[in-house]
Amino acid sequence: GPKENHPGLFSLLFQKPEETLLQFKTDLSTQSFNAIAESDLRESLRTFWRDEQLQLSHAVGASHLFTLQPDDTLSEMETIPFEIRPPATYAEYIENAEPLLRALGLPAPLLEEYRKRSAEALKLGEYYTLVDDLSY
How far is CA 40 from the centre of its chain? Predict the structure, then answer.
């Protein structure tokens, strides 16, 4: 229902309850919903939250690499697909990451090592995973 009718509920669940676009608080757990007295509302919101969490647990996308031109425009160099499985703090590139390695300026011997390891893994019916650590 309207925010005005449930200010406590919106404050309990959402980061900025006054905003139009709502985002769940990051510290919610299934027990957080126990503070909602009405059981039907509590269970439907808990189910909705769980479904939302499951959708976020596997993200697939693409990294777009750009170069800055002398006239301050950007031109796309490569598009590299990735896969993230939160709450992991890394991105797993699901296809050939050599364009990324080239764009990052890795020396030729390291690029050759990447090619070699990828080819060896492929021969074994496996894949060579390049991991970008986001854990700062």
Answer: 31
